[in-house]
Design goal:
This protein has one domain: Rossmann fold (3-Layer(aba) Sandwich). 37% of the residues lie in helices and 17% in strands. It has a 7-stranded mixed beta sheet, sandwiched between helices. Strands 6-7 form a two-stranded antiparallel sheet. The longest helix is centred in the C-terminal third of the chain and has 17 residues. The N and C termini lie far apart (53 Å).
């Protein structure tokens, strides 16, 4: 029997704050808004408007996710920005893992005023992920490596990875990487040293690729892939708020 996740873990969340700054929070591949809720609450305390989006195919079952891909998630992210624009003068995209990739995609299209990119994949640690395109005609799902994590009291994520959506993500990644030079808004890149999903080399690739943007880079020594819920979460939230204040409130 399939157990339904706790609604608080999978539902989108929204805090209506001031009309100056809106924060769009984007969760990771197979994850849910629960990954971003703690950070969202910290940002809402600054009276910023905060929207934690639920991406298509997420928050239910891996079977639902099979029917989705990068175009759906990109469309979700664009709609999230447009929704915040109706209320806020400026919008920042803040994303974890695939959410970071979507945030950079939004910046490449000139849709946001700042980006915070957290453990964004340029190079993946798990060699199986790179074979998704070859395997998908024969295998629909693979079990997550133990280090990737799953559902906890704070977070809902799928235990199985649907290969068709993973292949869609893999195919989108080079395009985002190729267009990093088009980003003109300020970017804060965060990367966990203990990330077992995304290679820390990804942060260096982003740093070099974001040649047209004012960029900061922070490495976190004690956190894993889910940086927003790790042992350094308080400091991550503080650095996020500092960056937004410096670049948007006072910029």
């Amino acid at each position: 029997m399939i157990m339904k996740p706790e609604p608080r873990l999978v539902e989108a969340f929204y805090h209506e704050g001031n009309d100056d700054l809106g924060c769009l929070l984007l969760h990771g591949f197979t994850g849910s808004p629960s990954e971003m809720r703690f950070l969202g609450e910290k940002l809402a305390a600054h009276d910023w408007t905060v929207y934690g989006l639920l991406l298509s195919g997420h928050g239910t079952t891996p079977e639902d996710m099979v029917r989705t891909g990068w175009k759906d998630w990109a469309r979700d992210a664009e709609a999230g920005v447009m929704g915040l624009r109706r209320h806020c003068r400026r919008v920042a995209a803040i994303g974890l893992s695939m959410g970071g990739l979507l945030s950079l995609y939004l910046a490449e299209k000139g849709l946001v005023d700042a980006v915070i990119s957290m453990n964004t994949p340029m190079v993946l640690q798990d060699w199986r992920a790179r074979l998704a395109g070859l395997a998908k005609p024969f295998v629909r799902y693979v079990e997550k490596a133990e280090a990737s994590g799953g559902t906890t009291a704070e977070r809902f994520a799928y235990e199985r990875i649907p290969l068709r959506p993973l292949d869609s993500l893999n195919k989108a990644l080079p395009g985002v990487r190729r267009n990093l030079g088009q980003v003109r808004c300020p970017v804060l890149v965060m990367q966990s040293r203990r990330d077992k999903t995304v290679s820390p080399r990804s942060a260096d690739i982003l740093w070099r690729g974001l040649s047209g943007a004012r960029t900061e880079l922070i490495f976190w020594e004690n956190s894993g892939h889910i940086l927003t819920l790790g042992p350094e979460r308080e400091a991550v939230a503080s650095e996020t708020a500092r960056f937004l204040k410096n670049e948007l409130e006072e910029g």
